[in-house]
Amino acid sequence: xxxxxxxxxxxxxxxxxxxxxxxxxxxxxxxxxxxxxxxxxxxxxxxxxxxxxxxxxxxxxxxxxxxxxxxxxxxxxxxxxxxxxxxxxxxxxxxxxxxxxxxxxxxxxxxxxxxxxxxxxxxxxxxxxxxxxxxxxxxxxxxxxxxxxxxxxxxxxxxxxxxxxxxxxxxxxxxxxxxxxxxxxxxxxxxxxxxxxxxxxxxxxxxxxxxxxxxxxxxxxxxxxxxxxxxxxxxxxxxxxxxxxxxxxxxxxxxxxxxxxxxxxxxxxxxxxxxxxxxxxxxxxxxxxxxxxxxxxxxxxxx
Length: 303
Known about the structure:
By secondary structure, the chain is an all-beta fold.
């Protein structure tokens, strides 16, 4: 008979990157179709692909570029805890000796449902990687939000606001060009605003849940009672806010931080009579809201 085995030595390895991507319209993590690559900022040609695990978290077992074993092997614990089999004496305060390096992360969707982007991270990253500039979602908080493209299928029961954003050509204000990678914020009624990202051609689709139906008026004391408002006739006011800073030439893939930190911009509607400020719109239940002839200019600029 053989007795219980004896552990002579224990090794641990730390995954330098774990990152999750989130679709706010369906409140779910997304992995299908996404291609996530990591590269040193000083050597973008040297790349490694992150792969999703069973819970749709993209992980990278080893960073591209030079190896630093002392930053890859260890328990990943903050300090040695006697009695904890995951802790290894001599490997206390693992993260205090790690020196993260600058890497770029590129995200694409081969199906074309989500906008591509890049972001910079210092790796290895303890826990799920969420850059400080990414606005938190609730819940969860440790995710990076994806922005749908105009070709993203619309799930049942979800509202959609569409537009094609344009901006004046510098030096030729009467001519228009796509407002590439502009950010548009949509607030329906009193619900929290939802942001969308235009593509390089200025096309944008923002998906969001419908607000609660408008409650029916109180019934009078005696019949006949008026009928409640049918769902298919429900409407809500929609306010649009833009954030945009022109970049020439427009990048093929935007940097997420620069994109989300664009300055507030003005929204105009243009027709044969010229440009005038874009007012509130109306969302109708079961119908896409298409906002046409929208022009984006820097805040404070003339129409």
